[in-house]
Specification:
- The structure is a single chain.
- This protein is an alpha/beta fold.
- Helix content is 49%, strand content 14%.
- It has a nine-stranded parallel β-sheet.
- Helix 2 packs across helix 4 (78-88), helix 2 (33-43) packs parallel to helix 12 (244-257) and helix 6 packs across helix 7.
- The longest helix has 14 residues, at 132-145.
- It is globular.
């Protein structure tokens, strides 16, 4: 069984909500990724989402854009990201999802990249710019090597389309909290919106991301969803120079709030 599915089923059986933490690979330094992942896991994260930096992102807000620019300037590449995953796998079985854009993957060779990712120990992919209608082109490849393809819904996704996207997604359904970019306010998010997604998503757990900044946010959203995804707020703390220990403590506060 895929690590993501196994983890989420285990959490559900204990009536526990999932905490997914996003990091930009290669930020703040190339060598920081592995120890950050291990410290965040120690703090209580259930799944790690590693961002693959790209020069022209579509869904990333200023915090993650900046972290990607820094990582790229320091020489981060897809191969280096996969080498980080291999090192993490020497001491950890935490589920790892890669999130990023198609251009670098296509330049690498999509099938070659997916095979290399699976071999390194990656468990799933999130490709936010890939429309549902185009996702089938990679379905057989990903399923054949055990990678889950996690799809997204937003506040503008009609209920009937939520049903279709949920059926096609594997691992979990990524519920975007707002129509903005990462790190934007979650003031639009309501329990009624999550309720609509939950009502129509019969296959997958529903995890909510974009704009979750504090333990209080995590607590509020977790009352309605199966888990939360925290990205920009974590990257901002790393950018602000917080120590590994401080990052781990904050992650623990998020998890305990849920």
């Amino acid at each position: 069984m895929n690590r993501i599915t196994e983890k989420l089923q285990s959490l559900s059986s204990r009536k526990e909500k999932a905490l997914v933490c996003f990091l930009t690979a290669g930020f703040p330094t190339i060598d920081a990724t592995v120890p950050l992942v291990l410290e965040i896991e120690k703090g209580g994260a259930d799944i790690i989402e590693l961002g693959m930096p790209f020069s022209d992102p579509l869904a990333d807000g200023p915090v993650i854009q900046h972290s990607s620019q820094v990582a790229l300037s320091q020489g981060i590449t897809l191969d280096k990201i996969l080498s980080h995953v291999k090192i993490i796998r020497q001491s950890s079985e935490i589920p790892i999802v890669l999130m990023g854009y198609l251009n670098p993957i296509l330049a690498y060779g999509a099938e070659n990249f997916f095979h290399a990712a699976a071999k390194a120990g990656v468990d799933g992919m999130i490709l936010p710019e890939l429309p549902f209608e185009e996702s089938n082109r990679y379905k057989s490849i990903l399923e054949g090597i055990g990678l889950v393809n996690i799809l997204l819904v937003t506040p503008t996704t009609p209920p009937e389309r939520i049903v279709i996207i949920d059926r096609a997604s594997r691992g979990f359904l990524y519920c975007v909290s707002s129509t903005g970019v990462t790190g934007s306010s979650n003031k639009m998010l309501s329990g009624s919106y999550i309720g609509i997604v939950k009502k129509n998503a019969k296959k997958n757990p529903v995890l909510v991301g974009f704009g979750i900044k504090t333990p209080a946010d995590a607590h509020r959203i977790a009352q309605h969803a199966d888990g939360v995804i925290v990205g920009s707020a974590l990257v901002q703390r790393i950018a602000g120079g917080e120590s590994m220990k401080e990052i781990g403590v904050w992650v623990r506060q998020l998890k305990e709030a849920m």
